[in-house]
Amino acid sequence: MGLVADVFDPGVLSQLPGHAAIGHVRYSTTGSSSVINAQPLLVNCSKGQVALAHNGNLVNAAQLRQELANGGAVFQTSTDSEVILTLLARYSRLSLEDALVAALQQVRGAYALVVLGARQLIGVRDPLGIRPLALGRVGRTYLLASETCVLSNLGATWIQEVEPGEMVIIDSQGVRFRSLPGLAAFGASAGAAAETGASAGARAGADAGGGASRRQALCVFEYIYFARPDSVLAGANVHQVRQAIGAELAREAPVEADVVIAAPDSGVSAAMGYAQASGIPYQIGLVKNRYVGRTFIQPSAAVRSQGVNIKLTAVEPVVRGRRVILIDDSVVRGTTSAKTVALLRQAGASQVHLLVASPAYRYPCFYGIDTSQAGDLIAARRSVEEVRQMIGADSLHYLSEEGLVRAVGQAREKLCLACFNGQYPLPVEEGLSKDLMEPGHGEACQAESPSQASDGGTPPPPPRPAYEQSGVDVTAGYEAVRRIKPLAARTFRPEVLTDLGSFGGAFAVPQGYRDPVLIAGADGVGTKLKVAFLAGRHDTIGIDCVAMCVNDVLAQGAEPLFFLDYVATGKLRPEQVEQIVRGIADGCQQAGCALLGGETAEMPGFYPPGEYDVAGFAVGIVERSQIIDGQAVRPGDVLLGLASSGLHSNGFSLVRKLVFEDAGLSVADWIPELGRTVGEELLVPTRIYVPAVRSLQQRGIPLHGIAHITGGGLWENLPRALSAACQAVVYEGSWPVPAVFRWLAGLAARREDAGPGRDEAAAGKDAWGRLPGGAGLSREELLGTFNMGIGMILILPPESVEQARSLLAALGQDAWVIGCVERRQPGDLPVRLVPAQGVAAQRAISAQF
User: Fold this and answer.
1) What is the pLDDT of residues 14-46, one digit of tens each?
2) What digits encode the pLDDT tens for the residues 501-556?
3) Distances 7 to 2, 51, 145, 385, 489 between C-alpha atoms, Å
4) What phi and psi, each to the nearest 5 degrees, are found at residue 730?
5) What global pTM score does this model have?
6) Which of 205, 284, 534, 815 has the most C-beta neighbours closer than 10 Å?
């Protein structure tokens, strides 16, 4: 282990005769950084010696390893790459090439592989093409490399990139290519290996080209950080892509400054692009110590921090007294960024604006980047403003996903953007981590008592057969808690003082409050649960539960601190409870609050089989002087409506009647006008508004009132945010009503009148979803039952509207001016709907603000 030049000096290389070789410079992303895990890995099997080098991560390696171990396999390392070699070695009757095909049919994940046998060198790339692999040639010698710059350095001619799902075989006959037959994103288990392997050779060629038509997912972080600027990825030069990224950043985030500098080295190209597009001069403001490697990929936080301290030096004459734009490729953990900003301030910079050449890195990577824990990521549970404060910059701007995709020049469908948006091209199991296969990791989890508290735990209680005979599965209860604990742990804030399993959850009051007030809210999910039961999907319901509570707390100006849940069921199924609580943990992470604890109750005979109930409550904190109770609302204030994600969690008794009883639809039915199935649409989770609203608060935007639009719709919830002297005037047609509400109104209309011509008339539904002739749900009924596309309304002075909308847009939150506040006269209702004034009037309204 170590630097290549240190390990392979000329003396060592002279002792390595042969006609073929492979090497490996990948840092550890599965397994510890130890000699035992160093690659290439080497095995002796029926095919002789076989060596393997692997770039990427397998997401089902732990499952396959367990199955292989149960069958007698012995593992020497804690890396996922050994699973591939072990699978390959099982096929003694197949050639190396066919055995590799059979092995890869069983793995899921990211891999660019180079496999060396006695007479063959084989390269292969996973079906999604997450990690790159290039082929080159110098004379009669062929080379495979993860980057094209390697080929240039060796004087080789680049031939082509290995395509996703393609194998390249190099032997004495030259080079040939093979599309991997039947290589699905979801492979067979190890138990089916013997059957799939027997026919692998016969199927070769029958599926030729099959891999090329599949969805692709090249890791966009290769363009942002990993690849060297002189490399080519998917036909695009990395340096030019990064320059285009910088230009996009200049368009999205113009900043008044004196100089543009880069965080070397991966920020240089983007900084040049920003400078060229903005007209602000680019200069070298930071110098990198060439004897220090990349701090982002160091194995521990302590080593990363120490590396940053000696990695960079500021060029003082360039930055002193100047407003500096610092361009960095990404902000992952935040360690480097905070120290770099501090370094520039020490060198005399008057302002430091950090502009990031990628979106906020919010989600862990399971495909070959060492960020498999969300808790490591500075932006995972923090708003842009919170990250800015932690880093210490004067401003912080991220590139949008759209800007990144434009700069890369590839279709979004051909890129993996999961670290930014959480949309993983391959599903990943909960609990995946770098040390998943380290000795003792699994055993420790199994031995952990679900009832243990922070004192180190006690052994599980003795069996209780009488209790279990009554229908309560004690063992399942302990298994459920074991599954829940890591989900809760990923939401913990520094103020959490107890582990899950204590009699009560302890949470320290955050520092800095002079006169703090606690705000609490409780809620459930309601009959939306019935849709989850029908669909057999339970991983989003928890988000709804959290959202209903934290949005209520937020409506009074409070920052949500922690959440507790209650899950009750007739028959406890640990995997079902795990899915529910995973959703709760996801919701807590979105809201920035801790999942402090909860209760799982098994009540035989109380709930129908397969059904359950979910409820919870949230506690937040706010200065007494900053409580939002509507008393600050004044005539002339503006209503700013924040977009909902759909139905949220209200009106589902009516929804279920219209959809399932009256229309006779099922959760699996496809709805063309919605572009998804009934179940997918109805289970879209409730939007959590905490990051958006907290960002406005932290920027000093005065919020006089906040209305969370839940059960009772606009009519019932908006008055709760007003003082008695005020009336809210809502402009009909001032925001786009989502298609789901028009669809539901159409179902109601067809229920009333199923006569000829009604389907044709449906195309003429108005903004509220009503059909010509007034059939269907009335406007008042719609606004009194559903959110109609507005999940939260902010009431603020007109002079703050434009700034608020700009901040919300930067966070990806759509917002529209939907009305104003007037003085309420005797006899007036608290909410008045003004008929639509037409497009011109609406534009005039928008222009006014």
Assistant:
1) 778 788 888 888 666 665 566 667 778 888 888
2) 677 888 988 888 899 999 999 999 999 999 999 999 999 999 999 999 999 999 99
3) 6, 18, 19, 45, 40
4) -105, 130
5) 0.52
6) 815
The backbone torsions φ and ψ at residue 194, rounded to the nearest 5 degrees and listed phi first, read -60, -40
The structure tokens listed for 309 are 């301290």
DSSP string, 230-295: T-EETTEEHHHHHHHHHHHHHHHS----SEEEE-TTTTHHHHHHHHHHH-PPB---EEE-TTS--G
Cα distance between residue 545 and residue 567, in whole Å: 11
* C-beta of residue 359 within 8 angstroms of C-beta of residue 400: yes
pLDDT digits (tens, 9 = 90+) for 618-659: 999 999 999 999 999 999 999 999 999 999 999 999 999 999
Distances (CA, A) of 31 to 4, 27, 59, 68, 818: 20, 10, 13, 18, 54
- Integer angstrom CA distances of residue 648 from 53, 547, 566, 746, 782: 48, 9, 20, 19, 14
In this structure, the dihedral spanned by the alpha carbons of residues 560, 564, 567 and 573, taken in order and rounded to 10 degrees, is 100
At which residue do the structure tokens 């909308």 appear? Answer: 805
**Beta partners for 416?**
219
Q: How far apart are CA 776 and CA 772, in angstroms?
A: 9
The token pair at 451 is: 């009832």
Query: Between the CA atoms of 218, 220, 222 and 226, what dihedral angle is there, to the nearest 10 degrees?
Result: -150
Contact yes or no for 174/121 (Cβ under 8 A): no
The two tokens of residue 676 are 């998804």
Sign of CA dihedral 837, 843, 847, 849: positive
- Strand ranges of the sheet holding 134-138, from the earlier edge strand across to the other edge: 141-145, 134-138, 157-161
Radius of gyration over alpha carbons of the chain, in Å?
Answer: 30
Walk across the sheet containing 41-45 and list its strands: 41-45, 48-55, 112-116, 121-125, 166-171, 174-179
Amino acid sitting at position 328: D
Q: What SS3 state is found at 354?
A: strand
The answer to whether residue 415 scores a pLDDT higher than 80 is: yes
Neighbours of 494 (CB within 10 A): 8
Lowest mean pLDDT among 38-47, 127-136, 664-673: 38-47
With residue 142 as reference, give the H or E element that holds it. Answer: strand 141-145
